[in-house]
C-alpha cells in the first residue's frame, strides 16, 4: 500500500493519523481523524487503536506486520472518505465553515446509521479476530430484532431500516416484553441487552450516533441482574444424578459432562469439548481456557477420574484425541465449524439434562451452568472463603473465579476437592 492520500475537498484537509499524544491502557495509541481548515484542527476518534511498532509513520499506514492490517486500512479509507464527503457538501453550500462544522455535518448524515449494517460489520470483524462466541451472540440478536420488526410491522414502515436513534427506552422496553412473551429466560435477556448496549457504545465511539440519543441511561440493563438468584444444587442431588441408570448414549453423555464439570472445577462446556488426553497428566487436569487463554491446573477428584476411565477405551488411543465425543477432528476443522458444532451440542446436552433432572426429582432445571455453580457452592461449604469464590459463577464473577482457580496447586484446595 502506498502513502495515504490526503483529501483536500472544500479547502479542508482530512487524514486519519496515529494520535501519539494519547496512550491507552494497553500501550497502544488511538487512530483519529484529523480535519484541518484555516489552520484550525479538529480530532475525532474512529474507535480503533494501533501499537507504534505496527505503524509506519512515514507512510501514515499500518505496517505489514500489523495482525489486522487489511481491516485497519479499510477503517482509514472509510472514515477519510466520509469526512471528506462531509466537507465537500459544506463547500457546495458556498458558506464559510470550519473544521468543527465538518464533524457536525457528518453527524447529521450518520444519524441515519443502520443498526443491522453496523452489526454485520462488527460480526465480520469478530470472525476475523476468531471471537466466534461474541459473533454468534450478535447474529442471534440481529435475527431476533428482525423478527420483532416484522412482528410489529415496523420493518415495512422504515425507509432506512432500523436506526440507532430508533432504539429509544420505550422501544427497548417493548422489545423486552416481546422476549418475555416468547418465554426467553432472563439470563438470555440479560445477554441480549448487555450486548445491545455494547453495540451502542461502540457506535457512539465511532461517531455513528450522538451520545445524547443513548437509551441505556433510562433503560437499565441492571434489571436483569441475576447475581442473587441461586442456581446450585446440593451434594445429595449430585449423588442422585450420579446414581441414575441411563440407557441412551445421549443421556449418558449428558450425565457424564454434567458430573465432570462439577468434579472438574466447574469447567465450562466449550472447554469440555476441547479437552484432549494430553490435558490429563498424573491425576491432574491442565488446560487453557478457550475464552480467555487462562491456564488451569488442579487435582482430579476420584469421581472425575472414573468418568475419564469410561472414555479412555473409546477415545484414548491417541493423546491428541478429544476426551469427550463432541468434536471430530475429521469433520470439524475450521473455527466456524467447531463453534457451530459446540453451539448445537450444548443445546442438545442441556435438553437432555432437563430430562435427567426430572428423572432425579430435582426442581432446578439442569444445565451445564448449574454444574459450575454447584461446584462453587460445594467449595464454599468445604471451607473456601467467600471472598475468594462466590456462590454465583456467571459472567459477573468469572474474574474472581479465575483468580481463585490460578492457585489450585496448593494443598488446601486439593483437600477441598477430596470433599466434593
How would you sum up this structure, described in words?
It contains 14 helices and eight strands. It has 420 residues and is mostly helical. The strands form three sheets. The protein has a three-stranded antiparallel sheet, covered by helices on one side. A hairpin with a 2-residue loop joins strand 6 and strand 7 (284-288). Helix 8 packs across helix 11 and helix 8 packs parallel to helix 12. Residues 1-5, 390-398 and 400-412 have low confidence and may be disordered.
Keyphrases for this structure?
single chain; 420 residues; mainly alpha; DNA polymerase, domain 1; hpI Integrase, Chain A; 3 domains; 3-stranded antiparallel sheet; 8 strands; 10% strand; elongated; disordered N terminus
Low-confidence stretches: 1-5, 390-398, 400-412
CATH homolog superfamily of the largest domain: Intergrase catalytic core
Helix percentage: 40-55%
Shape: elongated
CATH topology of the largest domain: hpI Integrase, Chain A
- In round numbers, the mean pLDDT is 80
From the 3D coordinates, which CATH architecture of the largest domain would you assign?
A: Orthogonal Bundle
Largest sheet: 3 strands, antiparallel
Determine the number of helices (DSSP H or I, runs of at least 4 residues).
Answer: 14
From the helix content, strand content and strand pairing, which structural class follows? mainly alpha
